[in-house]
Design a protein that fits this description.
Elements: H1 4-32, H2 36-58, H3 66-86, H4 89-106
């Protein structure tokens, strides 16, 4: 069994590394807030993420089953309409998912 000084040293080094890994992003972020690139990314990224999710979902949809395909199309339409109307990603995703689940369970 290692002595108490060695174990205390391990705990202190681990705590320092953990603290530094959590503090460094905030220190770097403070300088990046004034960057026009970061501002543009913050404005455009949520829509890009939704687009990637929608396209990856499209890959798994079979359009041979008309009922499921129509449910999918309606859910996508609800998601797009809510996003354009309310500009709330959370609301759009939850409502679109709920629409698809309700339609697919009743079909």
């Amino acid at each position: 069994m290692p002595d108490a000084g060695y174990l205390l040293g391990l705990v202190l080094v681990s705590a320092a590394i953990t603290w530094a890994l959590r503090a460094v992003p905030f220190a770097v972020l403070a300088h990046m807030r004034r960057s026009p690139l970061i501002g543009r990314l913050a404005a455009q990224l949520p829509l890009g993420v939704m687009l990637i999710l929608a396209l990856s979902t499209l890959r798994g949809v079979s359009f041979h089953d008309t009922d499921r395909a129509m449910g999918f199309v309606l859910a996508v339409a609800v998601t797009i309409a809510l996003q354009l109307w309310r500009r709330s990603s959370a609301l759009s995703i939850v409502a679109g998912t709920a629409t698809y689940v309700l339609i697919s369970t009743t079909a």
